[in-house]
Amino acid sequence: MVDPISGTFSQLLNTINRNRSGLQNSLERIASGRKLNRAGTDPAASALSAQLQSDISALTQSVKNVESGTNFVRTAEGGLAGVSDLVNRGRELAIQSSNGTLNDSQRQSLNQEFNQIQSEIDRLTGSLQFNGRNLLDGTLGQNADPVNIQAGAGSGPDNQISLNVVEDTSTQSLGIDGADISTTQGALQAIDSFEQASQTLNAARGQVGAVGNRLVSTANSLNIQVENLTRSESGLADTDLAEEVSNLQQGLLSFETSIRALSSQLQNEQTRSRLLDFTI
Fold first, then answer.
1. In DSSP terms, which residues pair with 162 in a beta bridge?
2. pTM of the model
């Protein structure tokens, strides 16, 4: 036969342990700010939370990729602007040298600066780099090896943005390598070739600027996706502090009540034992 008093004590102790466990869980959720500290708490919600966290990490890295691509493109754009300024100065010198009021000596002086401009265009074209990659020597041209920005969590082409929009800007590619303005005829020919080179560079700058704008828009879109996913994951896995504090208060009350019940039961048992001793 089961002692009813022993059974009562056992029930009270079980209740106290359950209440204590509930308090520990509440304190853990409040301290960590997460209500899914263990997969066993809610397996389905935990799995979804883990997937959302993985997606957030992937998209966050994609944002970093796009921002790096933006800096890459801005560097190329700055280089193109520099070459364009040099070409415009060369055209200006050619127009000046074509003026019939100048003598050969004056044209020769202009041609010396003109040659320095040509050399600087080739130097800038061959030396401008970003993280060790040349930008203006044709390695970013449409027929060069693909240079893509990974701008999404997937591996398909929809998740990549091509940076192959910068053709070779050397004097040879621009058609101005053989220009000479030491004579009137040479200056007149240089005017046309430098004008064409200027138009080519303006078109290139337009293409690079368009890619730069696209990268900025892509980064903004990715940041919005990260924000939305973070909000969803937070709503799924983060602790509702107001609710959890209320649960903690209720748990403390239940714990105190069970302790009082145990104390009362112990006092009753002691009184009963004394009465039995006195009767005997």
1. 148
2. 0.73
